[in-house]
Design goal:
This protein is mainly alpha-helical. The chain contains 6 helices and no strands. The longest helix is centred in the N-terminal third of the chain and has 25 residues, at 30-54.
């Protein structure tokens, strides 16, 4: 992302994941597309946006990246495109001869299967990872500033009061 606003980066992530779901719809795998929208768009991105708001970083700009990091990022992207094109031209990919027959029932039984080739364990691992991420967000958001026993607030008010007195050119400010 080239934007320096963190909230806009999260919104661009949202649109990127919706685009991936559109690719699944284009491949006629509607169930996986729906899962992509519900889990990633509805879950992960909302969690990221929630975390941004909890840490009060929504309106802040991220620092501008150095030219060296920008050049390194461009080189990494170009290398990725180059490797992808090399793979496409090196291997003669042929269209699949058998029909793509994955129904919701087949996908569900495969996800709940605990034997070889099943996805029950990876599904549980991912759910634990998401739980840990949520707990981490809550811990970060609930961190309170170090205790000052009210002295910092009193010192700030005193300083503002002094500045206000010198601005007005008076020695005493009376309450109205």
């Amino acid at each position: 992302m080239t934007t320096r606003k963190i909230f806009r980066s999260a919104i661009w992530l949202l649109f990127s994941l919706i685009g991936i779901a559109a690719l699944y719809f284009w491949l006629q795998v509607e169930f996986i597309a729906a899962v992509q929208i519900v889990v990633y768009v509805g879950g992960i991105v909302v969690l990221v946006i929630f975390s941004i708001f909890l840490t009060e970083q929504a309106g802040k700009e991220m620092p501008k990246q150095s030219t060296g990091r920008t050049i390194a990022a461009v080189l990494a992207v170009l290398s990725g495109f180059g490797l992808t094109l090399m793979q496409i031209w090196t291997y003669n990919f042929q269209p699949a001869t058998k029909n793509f027959d994955w129904t919701v029932a087949k996908i569900g039984s495969q996800m709940l299967n605990t034997s070889s080739g099943g996805f029950a364990l990876p599904f549980e691992v991912v759910s634990m990872l998401l739980l840990a991420a949520m707990v981490g967000c809550i811990v970060i958001a609930m961190k309170s500033p170090p205790a000052t026993n009210g002295k910092a607030k009193e010192e700030l008010l005193e300083k503002l009061n002094q500045e206000h007195k010198t601005e007005l050119g008076i020695t005493e400010i009376s309450e109205v």
